[in-house]
Each structure stands twice: as C-alpha cells, then as structure tokens.
C-alpha cells in the first residue's frame, strides 16, 4: 500500500519514507511548517496536522511565558545592571 506525503501530496514509497506521528513523509518534506528547519522523525510537535519544531511550537501555541529570550540587547538598558545607589557598597 502506498501512502501519500501530507506536505506535498505525492506518493511515499517504503524505501524513502520517514514515519513520524503516524504519517509518512519524504525525507526532505519533514520540516517545520513555520521556519522550514529539517526535523527528525518523532522529535517534533504537531498542530492542525502540520509539523513544527519545538521552538516554533512553543512560540506560537505554547503557554505564555515560555518564549525564549532573544538577547539582552533587546531589553534596552539592562535592568540587572542598574543597582540602586543605596545598595552599593562603599570602600
């Protein structure tokens, strides 16, 4: 029995298939729907029958507060570098 790739719709033959989450993909078709990063079988999440890498899945569909920080420079003036004058030690 020939299955069809959910990404491109073409037949996936047994010798070339990558089986993940109950579906058969072509090796090059198994990639994140958002960022197009290549995925490993079973090592990704799925939403609305589309595969996502764990980073994109958490960013788009995860609970609030799980988004990774991009960098300290994106915060503007770093809040941790500002120490109130009262708490600084004088020598």
Describe the secondary structure blueprint for this structure:
Layout: E1 3-4, E2 11-12, E3 18-20, E4 23-25, E5 45-47, E6 50-52, H1 54-61
Antiparallel strand pairs: 1-2, 3-4, 5-6
Summarize the structure in words:
By secondary structure, the protein is mainly β. It has a domain at 3-63: Cysteine Rich Protein (Ribbon), CATH 2.10.110.10. Helices cover 9% and strands 18% of the residues. The chain contains one helix and six strands. It has a two-stranded antiparallel ribbon with strand order 1-2. A two-stranded antiparallel sheet has the order 3-4. Strands 5-6 form a two-stranded antiparallel sheet. It is elongated and about 45 Å long. The termini are far apart.
Along the chain, the helix and strand elements come as EEEEEEH
CATH class designation of the domain at 3-63: Mainly Beta
Q: Rg, please?
A: 22 Å
CATH topology of the domain at 3-63, which one? Cysteine Rich Protein
Portion in beta strands = 15-25%
CATH superfamily of the domain at 3-63: Cysteine Rich Protein
Shape: elongated
Helix content: under 10%
Q: How many helical stretches? A: 1
What's the short version?
With 91 residues, the protein is mainly beta. Helix content is 9%, strand content 18%.
Key descriptive features of the protein:
mainly beta; 9% helix; Cysteine Rich Protein; 91 residues; 18% strand; 1 helix; two-stranded antiparallel ribbon; two-stranded antiparallel sheet
